[in-house]
Amino acid sequence: MGAVRREPREHRGEIALREVMTLSLSFDHRLVDGEQGSRFLADIGRILRDPGLALTMM
């Protein structure tokens, strides 16, 4: 996990300052393929944006 930074991003057709954090993931490709790893990282990003989602994902 990287630091949270405010950066200009496109949001709803306009440029707005958004809080951005870099997430990275390492895994053994012999056990997990890239598509599964990508889905997992996207789920983590959604939970960080809306922690209440963690309750519905179980």
List the topology elements.
Blueprint: E1 5-11, E2 14-20, H1 34-49, H2 53-56
Number-wise, the strands total 2
- The side-by-side strand order for the widest beta sheet comes to 1-2
Q: List segments where confidence is low: pLDDT < 50 over at least 5 consecutive residues.
A: none
Strand residues, percent: 15-25%
Largest sheet: 2 strands, antiparallel
Question: What value does the average pLDDT take?
Answer: 86
N-end to C-end Cα span = 23 Å
How would you spell out the order of helices and strands?
EEHH
Class computed from helices, strands and strand pairing:
alpha+beta
The portion of residues assigned to helices is 25-40%
Q: Supply the number of helical segments.
A: 2
The radius of gyration is 14 Å
CA-based shape = extended
Please explain how this structure is put together:
The chain has 58 residues and is an alpha+beta fold. The chain has a domain at 23-58. The protein has two helices and two strands. The protein has a two-stranded antiparallel ribbon with strand order 1-2. A hairpin with a 2-residue loop joins strand 1 and strand 2 (14-20). The model has no long low-confidence stretch (mean pLDDT 86).
